[in-house]
Design goal:
Pfam families: Band_7 (PF01145). This is Band 7 domain-containing protein. InterPro entries: Band7/mec-2_domain, Band_7. With 282 residues, this protein is an alpha+beta fold. It has 3 domains: 56 residues; 104 residues, Tetrahydropterin Synthase, Chain A; 68 residues. Helices cover 47% and strands 23% of the residues. The protein has 6 helices and 9 strands. The strands form 3 sheets. It has a 4-stranded antiparallel sheet with strand order 1-6-3-4. β7 and β8 form a beta hairpin. The longest helix has 65 residues.
């Protein structure tokens, strides 16, 4: 950012009339003495002769950005290591102190560089690597807020746009640490998901087995009821031994079905001699 710029005479070699753009601050001087700040629009400034009486200086009122780059040494326990920090400072002229911006500092950017380097050096030596970015932004902002308002400027925002270690080995180590932390968090989330999946699968299996048991119980009850009705008939040829045998055969084939439909089922050869089912089940 350049300092205040003198304005050439507007008309007929004099500054009797001035036009101020919307994005500019204009300071009016008479005989070299500051008189007032001019807002946007047309202003009649009084008699002037070739700019000898009335002088005008202009500065932008837009938000400006200046980047400062500094190399800061880490604490003594990390001797020989440096942090390269690039800090972007966004600032503009304070409307309540705009006249100070014209006459207080010769070069605002040099002033910003000085305080940024000072704040970064202190922060790097006293802050852990994990929280260094936030600490640098906070400390630089607070440091500039102490000095820039007196010069007629206000700080809008401070951003750490570049942050890396001068030693490539340390930079790689930092990346590995960050990667390891992310992997730990990912492992925790994955383990929690697997736990939920296992619990839900167990609950579903328990419900399925409960329903299967209820179905088998109803099936057995229906078989027994049918056999009882047949046994109660006068012309029935069934007796207690026949009913027992029928139940055993039914249970036998039900068992064979369960064996062959299992997830790890294999072919099983079983003898089918006379009374074989009853003998195998008893």
């Amino acid at each position: 950012m350049q300092g205040p710029q003198r304005v050439s005479p507007y008309c007929c070699g004099s500054n009797c009339v001035a036009e101020v753009p919307q994005d500019q601050w204009v300071a009016m001087e008479k005989f070299g003495s500051f008189r007032e700040l001019l807002g946007p629009g047309i202003h009649c400034l009084g008699p002037d002769c070739c700019g000898a009486i009335v002088n005008l200086r202009t500065m932008s009122n837009r938000i400006m950005q200046h980047e400062s780059s500094t190399l800061a040494k880490l604490s003594e326990v990390r001797e020989g290591l440096f942090v390269k920090a690039v800090v972007a400072v966004q600032f503009q002229i304070d409307p309540d102190r705009a006249h100070r911006a014209f006459y207080h500092l010769a070069n605002i950017e040099d002033q910003i560089d000085t305080f940024v380097v000072d704040a970064v050096q202190i922060t790097v030596q006293s802050t852990g690597q994990g929280s260094m970015k936030t600490a640098i932004e906070k400390n630089v902002y607070e440091r500039l807020q102490q000095v820039l308002p007196e010069a007629g400027f206000k700080v809008e925002k401070v951003l750490l746009t570049g942050y890396y270690f001068a030693d490539a080995g340390v930079a790689d180590a930092e990346k590995q640490i960050a990667r390891a932390r992310n992997e730990i968090e990912a492992t925790k989330v994955s383990a929690e998901a697997q736990k939920i999946t296992a619990v839900k699968a167990a609950e579903a299996d328990a419900d399925a087995k409960q329903l299967q048991g209820e179905g088998m119980a109803r099936q057995r009850a229906a078989i027994v009821e049918g056999l009882r009705e047949s046994f109660d008939r006068e012309d029935s040829r069934l007796n207690a031994n026949k009913i027992t045998e029928l139940l055993l055969v039914s249970q036998y084939y039900s068992t064979l079905k369960d064996i062959t439909t299992g997830p790890n089922s294999t072919t099983i050869f079983m003898p089918y001699r006379s009374k074989a089912p009853a003998q195998q089940l008893m």
